[in-house]
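FAQ

Q: What does a record look like?
A: Structure on top, sequence underneath. For example:
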């Protein structure tokens, strides 16, 4: 039996989350160029349908693991944009108290493990969290995001194999945006799809249009249900595209202009907006009002971050050990 699709409120909520993810990235990019943000940023622009589609079928007490490109995942999982922006500004009100920055943001209260910037390193960690969930006899699930490049790391094969043999409740989400930094996926993967590798581990492998949030949601729903029912992991490959370079300082000149333009014509936000209007789910005015509210919330987040205090030298010694008064990991105890 085919699962029932998302209702009106869910569709509108997904549109809102995707717009927020896109505008958060564009705002972060502007702030970085202006010199307000320390460190670097790896933007998620173009891939919003993957994070939002997957997270739309997760509960708050389900966990996600992320990568060096985590902003979209954080927005999709519901981490408040105020604390995300403050984290980019390295302020104490940030979701990681200003210690993580762009590549290590997250908040366990919202089910996001602080992002892991080492390529592929989140995969065995996701399996470990899923093992904890299973041993605790819960029905909680882990969604593990990683790129096509990470699927060539040893950690991928070890983590997926371990999750498979133990039937762990984890969904492996490969965001195949065609490039591992500047290397095209066709130069480093012999199979047609990353998902083809699932066969070697005896688990399902799904390939989905990562520019279609509804298609991603449907595939994720199947995978999450399988995991929650105790049947083990699924490898979901989402074919997507990042419109910008690997990092903010990368002009992306290794990509043909025609390729970028072709993917931009499939923009996930514009496509969903058109679909919602054409099928009568929402009016143009309703969606424009959502866009206005996103701008208001983002401007508030920027002002909140700017006015928040910098960490003190003593803060470097706080949070080094997980003490009894630290409730961050309480949900795993």
């Amino acid at each position: 039996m085919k699962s029932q699709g998302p209702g009106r409120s869910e569709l509108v909520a997904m549109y809102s989350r995707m717009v927020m993810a896109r505008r958060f990235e564009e705002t972060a990019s502007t702030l970085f160029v202006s010199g307000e943000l320390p460190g670097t940023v790896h933007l998620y622009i173009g891939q919003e349908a993957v994070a939002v589609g997957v997270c739309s079928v997760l509960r708050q007490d389900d966990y996600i693991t992320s990568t060096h490109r985590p902003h979209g995942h954080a927005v999709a999982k519901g981490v408040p944009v105020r604390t995300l922006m403050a984290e980019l500004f390295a302020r104490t009100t940030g979701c990681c108290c200003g210690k993580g920055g762009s590549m290590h943001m997250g908040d366990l209260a919202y089910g996001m493990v602080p992002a892991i910037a080492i390529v592929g390193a989140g995969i065995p960690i996701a399996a470990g969290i899923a093992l904890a969930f299973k041993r605790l006899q819960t029905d909680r699930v882990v969604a593990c995001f990683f790129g096509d490049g990470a699927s060539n790391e040893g950690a991928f094969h070890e983590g997926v194999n371990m999750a498979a043999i133990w039937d762990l409740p984890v969904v492996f989400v490969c965001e195949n945006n065609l490039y591992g930094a500047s290397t095209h996926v066709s130069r480093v993967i012999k199979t047609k799809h990353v998902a083809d590798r699932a066969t070697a581990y005896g688990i399902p492998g799904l390939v989905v249009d990562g520019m279609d949030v509804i298609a991603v949601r449907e595939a994720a729903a199947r995978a999450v249900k399988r995991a929650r029912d105790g049947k083990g992991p699924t490898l979901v490959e989402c074919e997507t595209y990042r419109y910008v370079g690997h990092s903010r300082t990368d002009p992306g000149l290794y990509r043909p202009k025609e390729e970028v333009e072709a993917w931009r014509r499939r923009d996930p936000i514009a496509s969903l907006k058109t679909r919602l209007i054409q099928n009568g789910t929402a009016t143009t005015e309703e969606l424009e009002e959502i866009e206005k509210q996103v701008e208001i919330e983002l401007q508030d987040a920027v002002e909140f971050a700017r006015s928040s205090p910098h960490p003190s030298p003593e803060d470097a010694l706080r949070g080094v050990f997980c003490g009894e008064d630290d409730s961050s990991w309480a949900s795993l105890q």
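Q: Is there anything notable about this one?
A: Residues 79 and 214 are 22 Å apart (CA to CA).
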